[in-house]
Structures are given as C-alpha cells and as structure tokens.
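Supplementary Note 3. Input sequence used for the single-chain structure prediction.
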Amino acid sequence: MTENEALDSHLPMLATPQAERLRALVAACVRARYGAESGYVLVGDAVKREGHLFPLANLARRCEGAPEGDWPALVDAHVAALADASQGGEDAEELLAGTCLRLVPADAVGPATPVHAREVADGLRLALALEGADSVRLLTDEDVARAGADELWAAARRALTRAPMRHEEVRLDGHPVLYSVYGDAHSVATRAVALPEVVAEVTGRRMPDAGALVAVPTRHLLAFHPIVDGSAADAVDDLATYAVRAHDEGPGPLSPRVYWWHDGRLTSLTAVDDAAGTVEQRPPRELVDVMRALRALDRAGRLASAGPAGPAVPEAEREPFAAALVDALAHAEGDPDGARVETWDAWLAAQRHGCALFSDGKDDEPAHDGGELAASGDAARAWLDAFYLTLVTRDRERTTRLCQVPLDSLRGGVPVDDYVSHWIDVLQSHWLRRPVDDVVDRLVTTIKASHPDTTTLAPKDFLNLVDYQPVALFHRLLTHDHEAFGEALAESLVQHAGYWGESAAPRARVALGPLALACLAYDMDFPVRTDLPYLPRYLLNRQRLEVAPD
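The predicted structure, written as discrete structure tokens, is reproduced below.
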C-alpha cells in the first residue's frame, strides 16, 4: 500500500489524501458560512463549535461513493444541515425521544462547557446528549430541567442497549483473550457503563462475580477481559498497551486508562502523570486480593494448584495423566457421541494413568496407603478426575481402590478449599457403603463448605458452575429422586455451557463430573436421557463398542 492508498486513521473509509481534502473543504465552507472567527475547531473526524460536536463520518461515507468533483456540493449541503442542528430549546417530549448517554473525557466538562454530566470514574464523565443525524449536543442543566433528570437518564439508558456494535476475540499465543467491541456509532464505548449486558451479548456468558477489566480508549472502541482466572494479571498489561495505543492513534479519544468493572462501578487501575508523560498501572488492593485468589486451569483443565507443587505427584507422573485426560476429552470434538473405538481407548488410557497416581502400579495391589504419597493439593483434584473416569469406564475395582486412598494423604501441602476434601469424603463413604446417615452428614458439610461466601481459593464462577454441579447431582441420586436428578442434570449442563462458553479447551467439550454422576445413575436404573449435550451417549449408556460409527 502506497502513502496515497493508506486509509486515514480518523476517517478510514477514505484514503489519507482524500480525507485531508475533505477536511479542507469543510473548513472552507464553515469559514464562508460563519466567518473566520466563528470559534470552530476542526479535529480528525468532527467539527466542534460552541459546545456542539458535528461528526464527519456520515459525510465521508457519502463522499466515498461519489466522484470528487461532487464533493463541494455534498460538503455545502452537510454544513447547511449542521446549521439547522440542535441549538437548544427542545421541549420535554423531543428531549425524551432523542436523548442518549455519552462517555466524555473528564476535561471535556467544566465551566467553559456547563453540560449535565456525572462522574463515573477517574478521567471519565457520563453525559446526556441529544443526537441528530450529523450532530451530537451535550445537554445542559437548563435542558434537563425541562424534561426531568430522572426521566432523561432512564430514557438514555434504555437507548444505550440499542446502539449497534461489532466484536471480535483477540487471541495471541501466550496471552489471555481480550474481547474488542467497535463500531461507527459514537456510543460504542459508552456501553461500558452497561458492561454486564455487553459481556453477555459478546461472550454468551454472564459477567463473572469478580467483574471484568475494561478499556475505553476512544468513543468507537471498548475492550474487556472477564476476570475468571489467574490470566487477569496478564490481561491488565495487555489492555494497558491496547488502551494507550488506541487512545493516541484513534479518532475521538476518551481515556488511556484500564478500569475494573465490579459491583456496578468502574475503578481506574491507571495512574496518569501528564507532566512526566507516564502511564502506570496500580491496581487497588481489593483487585490484587481477587487476582491472587484466582488461579488458571492446568493443562488438564483442572483448577491449577497455587504455589509450588508437592512431592506427592511428581511432574513426570502428573504430566502423562494430564496429557491423557486432555486427549480423551478432545475426542469429543470429532466424536461427540463417543462412538469410536479410538475414543474409548483414549478414555481408558486416561483412567489408567489417573489411577496409577494412587497405586503401587500393580493391578492386584490395593490403593496407595499414602506412605510415599505426601500431602499435595493437586492430588485431591487429580483424585476426583481419576474417580470420575472410573465411573465413566465402569471399572468398579479401580473405583474401590481409589476410595481406599486415605483422605489425609490428599489434604495439606498446596492448599485447596475444604469443600474439595469433604466432597471426596462423601464419595468414598458412599462407595464403601458406610451408613447412609454418615454419608448424609458428610454431604451436608460439603454443601455448607462450598457456599461461595466460605471459599477463598476457587473463583466463584468455577465453584458454582463447575465444581458444585456433581454435588448437586449426588444429592438427588442419594434420595433416589429420578425427576429431580433429571432436572439437576439438565441444569448442570446449562451451567457448564455458561462457564465455558465458546472455549476451545478440551474440558469445555465434556462435562466430566456430571457425566460420571449420570453414568452412576444410569447404572442404578435412573431414567437418564442419553441425548444431552456434553455427555457422550455411548459412554453414558455403556454401548461404547457395540455401536460402530457409520
């Protein structure tokens, strides 16, 4: 692309020389109509005059499809339309019909521009604006008094969700995913004040309990990263780089800051020193504590252990299990029903690797007594995966051996939340046919310990949407309530989809815990549906090898 072919950074529908010519025509036309001292300012993509903003994007689109010889007439008509744009004095009905929300830089509001605006975060104000076809006028207190502040803010908020936008995922190797939202409308960045709705629309998932990181570098752009695991720390730096660059280069600059959306408010993470020309990220202590508590998923898709790994399950032994588990789950992409022999072989291999972590490596030996298996936090979650795999593959002997692993050998070391150990205790007690009252007591303890307010390590979303679902299913299984089990199973799969969204992670393709409990219920003659998503039917109904693929 030559210099003459390069698209203009502010009016990208035109090449740079074309955009410069258009601006020159607009400037000449404005001077001719209003005079050289009319107080107008021509910026990259708009004309500003006496508190009014007149965008040039629509004019540029008209010129894009017209011969350049027709441009002077188009510009003259456009400037004439600007002269008829809102100058104030609208009645209440007109204001309520046309008012919208606009994020504006904090320095855009002051004694020289006495507009009606609210502070939403450092460096940002939220204003009421009246939008026309080619102009935007920020409302003053006098305007607001004619229609009522509460009524105008409510009407503007309703209009915000109708603003058109486009979006895409930004994925770079080794970096957390960022979601970029963009569009021609000046209200795209303003949708950050309704970020939960944006997150749901873009990702298909609700806003995480920990909130999201967000940047609004220009009025046409916003980018965000939902805070669901330890990758949020890296996302702060990536968003900071994105925000500064887009703010400096893009049209309609808003803020170079990174913000934390949490509990309905935006908190700035960025310290801006205008004198020194520096931008530095300083997350508040509350966010630092949140990010320290969150952990990423390991290679197998489990919640990764925090801190150094204990000696109980050496890396050389853990990795084959992690790799085998990933391989088994990944087969669901091409074989979601689990019909192929290769899929069954992969699941069987993963089960054997998992069980090997807790045995002496001999089929006729009981489960490891913990002598060499020192306490290790990741051992508890590896045990759960191995247990689930034995239920899916119906290897009852290995299930029993796993249930003979001393619970104390799975505690301590790298910490896990108490509910994980309590849940293992429930499963072991049930499988080893301990008194039902004891199992119920342990289940109640698990349910109480898994309340989000009592946990400190697992992200609330992971706990509620993933980790707790097998517990809820077991409760219905224990009471032999067939109908309630079916409803809970369907709900667990909705929650699974809500947590993983469109993720390509192998763990997203199969709901391992619910599948294991569904297999157990199926074997107990529960009327379990075998056509549900995330549950390979031929693993669930034991016909894995009897039904060959077409």
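The longest strand covers residues 124-131. The CA atoms of residues 199 and 531 lie 30 Å apart.
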